[in-house]
Each structure stands twice: as C-alpha cells, then as structure tokens.
Automatic annotation (TrEMBL), chain A:
Pfam families: Archease. Residues 8-148 form the Archease domain. It comes from Meiothermus hypogaeus NBRC 106114. Belongs to the archease family. The keyword Protease does not apply. One of its GO terms (molecular function) is metal ion binding. One of its GO terms (biological process) is tRNA processing. This is Archease. The keyword Metal-binding applies. SUPFAM superfamilies: MTH1598-like. It comes from the Bacteria. Keywords: Calcium, Metal-binding, tRNA processing.
Automatic annotation (TrEMBL), chain B:
Keywords: GTP-binding, Ligase, Manganese, Metal-binding, Nucleotide-binding, RNA repair. GO terms for molecular function: GTP binding; metal ion binding; RNA ligase (ATP) activity; RNA ligase (GTP) activity. It is an enzyme of class 6 (ligase). PANTHER family: RNA-SPLICING LIGASE RTCB HOMOLOG. This is tRNA-splicing ligase RtcB. Its cofactor is Mn(2+).
Length: 148, 475
C-alpha cells in the first residue's frame, strides 16, 4: 500500500541493485528512490537527519533527471562522507527549452562506520532498467540500476 | 540462460548467430553448467553490443560473464579506430579496476606464528570500507601530475620501487591521459581517496600457493608451492566512478547528435573520431593512471605493514592487470593487422608469448592473468596463450563472477558467522562491515574453479598456479 509519502523497494539485478521509488507525485517518488539508494548502503533508520545539503540539477528529460539526482546524491555522499535519510524534492515544470529542474534538500549525518555499518559504496546510477511511469492506480514509479 | 538459442561449436564455445541488427555474432566461452547459470539478459546485451557501428569479429562473453548494464560484465568488444565507437558503459564505472599480485619472499611457516598480528596490522594500515580516507591529500596540481603519471608518479613520490613499473600494464603509465578533461567533481571525489581499497568486492589478501599446474611458467613468474603472496583488488576509486558518470551522460546526448540508435541508453557511445569520443578516451586514460597509482600506493602500505612485523619480507610485484578498460591494440582480423579499441569490461587482457608489450621476464611464456576468487575460495594465476589472439582478441575471465544478488546473499548469511566459520578454516577476515561481508559471501559467487577450468579448456589462458587465502582485508 502506498501512503501519502510513498514507499521504496529494491529490484533484482544479478550483480548490482535496482532502486525504485513509488509515490503519489513525482516529487515523492524521487524522494523514495533516494531512500532506496541509502538502503543499498545502510538501514535508513540508523541515519539521523541532522544536517541538510542543498541539491539542484537540470536535465532534458525526467528519466535523465532521476539518474542525475541519484548521481548528485552519490557525489555528495562521497565528498562530504555523509549519508542521507530524509529528502524534500521539488521538480519544476519544463522551461521554454524543455529542460526540467530539480531543487532538493537532503538531510543526513557524517558516516559513522560503527553505527551505520555501511555495506558498500555506490559507484554510480546507471541508465539500465531506467523507467519513469505512472501505474494503473496513478502512482508514480521511478527506477534504475545502481552500480555497487 | 536458454541454451537452445545458441549454436554449440565445442564443449566450451557457443555462438549467438548474427541476425539483424547484429553486425557480428556473439561468442560465449563456458561449459553448459556455467551457461545455464547466466541470465538471458547476457544474450540480450551481447546482441545490443554486436549491433554497434565499427565492431569487428564478434562480441565475446568470458566464462564468468553476467548481466551488467549496457555491456555484459565479462564482455569483450573491439571497434575499428576509423569508423567505430567508444562507450563509457562498455568500460564500466570502476575504470581500470584490477588485480596485482606480489611475492612476499616468505613461506606459510614464516606467516603462521604471526598471522593474527599481520591481519590486524594490515587492517589498521590499509584504509578500507565506505567513507575511509587515505593519508595523502592531493591538491589540484598534484592531482593532475598523478593523472598523467599513474604508478610512475607514485614511485617518484616514494610509494614503491622503480622495478615495480615494468610489472604493470603500460609500464605503470597510460599514455594519452588528459587530466584537463576530468571534471572538478571527479577530482574532488578523489582528493582524499588515494591509497584506499574501497568496498564491495575489493580486497587485500595474503595467500599461499597450494598447487602448481605448469612448472616452467610458474618458474618464470617466480612462484612455487608453499610460497606466500599478496593480492590487491581495487580500482580508480571515486575519480573513475565520476568520470564514468560524467561521460555516460555526455554520450547519451552525443549518441543522439551522431544519429546512433541505442537499444539501451546504457550503451551510450560516441564515434571514436569525434570530439566527445576523444574527450572520453583522454579522461578514461587519466582514470586508468589513477587506478595504477592507487594500487601502487596500496602496495607501499602493504610493504610497510609487512616490514613492521616481518623485516625479512620482500614484497616483489609479479604483475598488475586491469579489468575495465578500452585500449588501442593491434589485432589480426581476417589475417590483416588492424588497430582496434578493445573494450574489456570485467575481462583481463591475456597476451600470449612473444607479445612486445610484455616485460622481458615473461616474453617467452606469456602474460600473467590474475584471477581473484572470493574470501573463502581459491584464486588462480593463469598465462596468456598463442591461440587466445584468435579466440578472444587475447582476453580472459577476471574472477568468479556473481551468481546471486546482494539481497539474496544478505538473506542467506550473517557477516559475523561467516567470519567465524572462515576463521575455523584458517582464513582470517577483517572488515569494518559485517553486512558487507555477508553480501560478499563466497557462496554468492560462481565456482571460481569452474570458471578458470573453462577459460583453460577454451584456450583463453592456461592454468599456472592455485592460491588459497590466509588473510583477507575486505572493504
């Protein structure tokens, strides 16, 4: 059952992992996909949302925007040595050139190996199994495979 | 995998015949059991790659092949220099991820009494795991020097010895690197990651040689039963990952610009002779240098840890191989030499005897092919063959290859129990992450011996020695 906030899941890939976000709006689905990304590394419940990072990106298509969003999170995690557990995403409608933009806040904290027990670092989000669609109930489903 | 879609040519060679839009066939080297374990997506991905412009001869799957993104992992594909394409997805995210193996000059008897201390010493001294940082911080000018110089740069900085360099592909330094074409983000991601192992399937292992299959070649490589070796599996760290991310994105747009029809966005590529293609090649070569420098620094750290406990130890590099690359090589195609960009994604270059790129010490026998197993199973040293050139453009397998997803592994094993069980078998595992250990459980991988036997039987490379783990430092 998808709540107001949505939900996330992982889907099968033999060597890597598929991340999927589902939500009543695209914004929420993008937030859930980000949670699915965190869950590849650690249990999101172990992460305290005490520090916010601002993220903006732009892409010609919504599917590419999803990959860019996840890749930006991977970059912020790697360079700040942080892990995120709460997200607030706002997508803006296409501008005159057709480009979509995303404005987001990601809350998290510095990685603590003992408390977070991070399993693996994510190298990047790929275009494999990349999909952005609405299911028959009208929920947005966004997904791709991430390389670990 | 549904083998009825394939034509069997021998016990270890199966063809996916070319049908439009495929330009060349797909050739899989494996026995029937390994093929059955492979996902059908491997065939789908091979067919997609076989449809790209400028591909020659065939797209190949090594015995450890599995479903990747865009190109299969364990895939090899070569494109003509003049009208072919280069693909960031065909190289992979961890550019030049690879394995190097060193002799320690010690035997199992020397190691046994101090094994626990050695494991602890290596674990403390070699940064491993998510979020770990190295002691070296690179400012922008030094970063560019590293990206130009590779392992040669590292040796000049005091990490290792000049004689290490001849035992590394490209003599430790990839020509044609263009550090200026690497984004600031990629460089920032690497600033504190030099000399870090990483996580996932990366490791540092202390191993013993338990069997020699080919005495003549083993002698040339300097290994004998009872010898203790050290192997390192790591890559280009955050910089390589970010280069792949940046250029995959650019290639999605470049493919559109050049009218390349892609069955899967992850096949995103650009003509080799285009601005985008050349830019990627320059950046990828710089990332190869990053991986070579990283493994060189890790070698230095391993030497320091050994020297502290065992001053007699002398860690001599046997060889260093890279798995995820696209390199310009000359190969015989229909009897004529051709310059090709050979993409190897999760595959090892395996030059046969006499190849001019090999160091003098191996010229007569062929290139060492280092195959990493899992923390609970064997690793192997093989050697390139003369027939490998025609079979697979001188390429072989790279490891065991995953048989099970990380999720399935996590359901089946607990990290702490695995560490205890392996300890009872005499294998000391040290890792900052029990969950990471569970996801990398030996049972989650294919049988490395079956993979190596298939590579041997298919003539891609021949078995030289079998190694068993004594200590494993996991990221």
């Amino acid at each position: 059952m998808t709540t107001q906030l949505g939900r996330w899941e992982h889907f099968y890939h033999q060597a890597d992992i598929g991340v999927r976000g589902i939500g009543p709006t695209l914004d929420k689905a993008f937030e859930q996909a980000a949670l699915a990304l965190t869950a590849v590394i650690t249990d999101p419940a172990r992460v305290r949302p005490i520090q916010a990072v601002e993220i903006e990106c732009e892409a010609p298509r919504v599917s590419l925007l999803l990959v860019d969003w996840l890749n930006r999170l991977i970059y912020e995690m790697a360079t700040r040595r942080m892990i995120f557990a709460q997200f607030e995403v706002h997508l803006s409608p296409p501008d005159l050139g057709g480009a979509l933009s995303l404005h987001a806040l990601a809350w998290g904290e510095p990685v603590d190996p003992l408390r977070h027990q991070p399993a693996v670092e994510v190298k990047g989000a790929t275009y494999s199994e990349l999909e952005v669609k609405q299911d028959p109930q009208g929920h947005w489903v966004v997904q791709c495979v991430v390389d670990v | 995998m549904d083998t009825t879609r394939l034509t069997q040519k021998s016990a270890f060679e199966w063809w996916l015949e070319a049908s439009p839009p495929m330009r060349v066939p797909g050739i899989l080297y494996a026995n029937e059991a390994l093929l059955r374990e492979m996902d059908d997506k491997v065939l789908e991905q091979m067919a997609n790659v076989a449809s790209l412009p400028g591909i020659v001869q065939a797209v190949y799957a090594m015995p450890d092949a599995h479903w990747g993104y865009g190109f299969p992992i364990g895939g090899v594909a070569a494109f003509r220099e003049d009208d072919g394409v280069v693909s960031a997805g065909g190289v992979g995210f961890d550019i030049s991820c690879g394995v190097r193996t060193m002799h320690t000059g010690l035997t199992v008897e020397d190691i046994e009494p101090i094994k626990e201390d050695l494991a602890q010493g290596l674990f403390r001294h070699v940064p491993a795991g998510v979020g770990s940082i190295g002691k070296i911080h690179l400012e922008p000018a030094e970063m560019d020097a590293m990206l130009q110089g590779g392992a040669e740069w590292a040796v000049k900085q005091g990490y290792g010895r000049p004689e290490d360099l001849e035992r590394i592909e490209e003599h430790g330094r990839m020509e044609g690197a263009r550090p200026e074409l690497i984004s600031l983000q990629a460089k920032r991601r690497q600033a504190d990651e030099m000399g870090t192992l990483g996580s996932g399937n990366h490791y540092l292992e202390v191993q013993q040689v338990t069997e020699v299959f080919d005495t003549r070649v083993a002698e040339a490589f300097g290994v004998a039963v009872g010898d203790v070796l050290v192997s390192i599996h790591s890559g280009s760290r955050g910089l390589g990952h970010q280069v792949a991310t940046d250029y995959s994105r650019q290639m999605v747009e470049a493919a559109h610009k050049y009218g390349l029809e892609l069955a899967d966005l992850e096949l995103a590529c650009a003509p080799i002779q285009s601005e985008e293609g050349q830019a990627y090649l320059g950046a990828m070569r710089a990332a190869i240098n990053c991986a070579l420098a990283n493994r060189q620094i890790l070698t230095h750290l391993a030497r320091e840890a050994f020297a502290y406990l065992l001053p007699r130890a002398d860690l001599r590099l046997i060889y260093d191989v890279s798995h995820n690359t696209a390199k310009l090589e000359e190969h015989l195609i229909e009897g004529k030499p051709q310059r090709l960009y050979v993409h190897r994604k999760g595959a090892t270059r395996a030059f046969g005897p006499g190849h001019p790129a090999l160091p003098e010490a191996f010229r007569a026998v062929g290139q060492p092919v280092l195959i990493g197993g899992t923390m609970g199973t064997a690793s192997y040293i093989l050697v390139g063959t003369p027939e490998g050139e025609a079979r697979s453009l001188s390429s072989s397998c790279h490891g065991a290859g995953r048989a099970m997803s990380r999720h399935q592994a996590l359901k089946q094993w607990r990290g702490k129990e695995l560490v205890r069980e392996l300890g009872q078998r005499g294998i000391i595992v040290r890792s900052p992450s029990p969950r990471g250990v569970a996801e990398e459980a030996p049972g989650a991988y294919k049988d490395v011996t079956a993979v190596v036997d298939a590579a041997h039987a298919a003539g891609l490379s021949r078995k030289v020695a079998r190694l068993e783990p004594l200590i494993c430092i996991k990221g």
